[in-house]
Amino acid sequence: MVQDNYLYFFGGNPNQSEASLDFAKKAGGKHAKIALLIIYRQGWEEYLPRYTDPWIRAGVQPQNIDVIIPNQHGELNVDQTIHTLQEATGIYIGGGHTETYHATYVKEPYKSIMQEKYYAGTPIAGNSAGALLLTDQVVLSSIDTDSGETIHLHGLGFVQDILISVHYSKWNDAEHLKGSLANTRISTGYGIDDHACLVVKNGRFHKALGEEKVFVVVKNEKSS
């Protein structure tokens, strides 16, 4: 049986009931094992309920939510990370400093493992920084970089032919997304507001969820 592949792009708020419920159900509901990938920052435990509470309300057992996080020096337990990813029925990449997320998780062996899981039918989600890294080509807004300049990166590569912008209305990011499209061979971008989620099924737009909007931006055309 061919498995459908789902990606969830959260624009900035991970605590979105509708989208989180949809993701948790796709991950297996009460039988789900969710790997939450985040980066270290002081007080990180306080932020966990923003991710986990909606999943628990959807029936996911708290003991089946495994947090992957590097230590204060940015180091991951490689064996434990590999095992957690391989066992997961849903993978969620959190939000925070995008360049650090990229340096931590967009590398081997994690990239290949997540790609294998995705193509085997495991739903993958990302919030803010995590959402940006789900695509093949990533263009970071100058608002989102340490240098204050736009940066082009290669992401996890789950989908090839779209660009993503997060915090879209809050960052007034339309010009950035249009400019990014103009500088690539990609023709379609999605600007995702903080309280919105773009769902991609089998590499194509499936639906938009949340209280705010997902904007479609086509090269040389206005957003709709």
Automatic annotation (TrEMBL):
<protein>
    <submittedName>
        <fullName>Type 1 glutamine amidotransferase-like domain-containing protein</fullName>
    </submittedName>
</protein>
<dbReference type="InterPro" id="IPR029062">
    <property type="entry name" value="Class_I_gatase-like"/>
</dbReference>
<keyword id="KW-0645">Protease</keyword>
<dbReference type="GO" id="GO:0006508">
    <property type="term" value="P:proteolysis"/>
</dbReference>
<keyword id="KW-0720">Serine protease</keyword>
<comment type="similarity">
    <text>Belongs to the peptidase S51 family.</text>
</comment>
<keyword id="KW-0315">Glutamine amidotransferase</keyword>
<dbReference type="InterPro" id="IPR005320">
    <property type="entry name" value="Peptidase_S51"/>
</dbReference>
<keyword id="KW-0378">Hydrolase</keyword>
<dbReference type="Pfam" id="PF03575">
    <property type="entry name" value="Peptidase_S51"/>
</dbReference>
<dbReference type="GO" id="GO:0008236">
    <property type="term" value="F:serine-type peptidase activity"/>
</dbReference>
